[in-house]
Design brief:
Helices cover about 60% and strands about 15% of the residues. The protein is of the alpha+beta class. The protein has two domains: about 30 residues; about 40 residues. A hairpin with a 2-residue loop joins strand 1 and strand 2. Keywords: Membrane, Transmembrane, Transmembrane helix.
Length: about 70
C-alpha cells in the first residue's frame, strides 16, 4: 500500500509549510491585509480575513496545479 508513503510525505509537507509560514509571517502580515474585515463594538469582535483567504486559496491552487502537472509526466 502507498498510504504510509503518503502520510510521510504529507507530514514533511506540513512541517515545511509551517516553517515557511513562520519565516514569511515576519515580513508579510497575513491576517492583517487590506480587505480583511474586522468589526469591534464593545465586547463583540468579528474578524473575517477575506483578502488573506483569497491569497491562500490562490497559492494552494497554484501548488495543486504544479503537483498535478508533475504527476502527469
Amino acid at each position: 500500500m502507498h498510504i504510509p508513503k503518503i502520510m510521510i510525505v504529507s507530514g514533511i509537507a506540513l512541517v515545511a509549510i509551517g516553517l515557511v509560514w513562520m519565516l514569511v509571517g515576519r515580513f508579510v502580515p497575513l491576517g492583517k491585509l487590506p480587505g480583511d474585515i474586522a468589526i469591534e463594538k464593545g465586547s463583540f469582535k468579528f474578524y473575517f480575513p477575506v483578502a488573506t483567504c483569497v491569497i491562500v486559496s490562490a497559492a494552494l491552487s497554484l501548488i495543486a496545479f504544479v503537483v498535478r502537472w508533475f504527476m502527469k509526466e
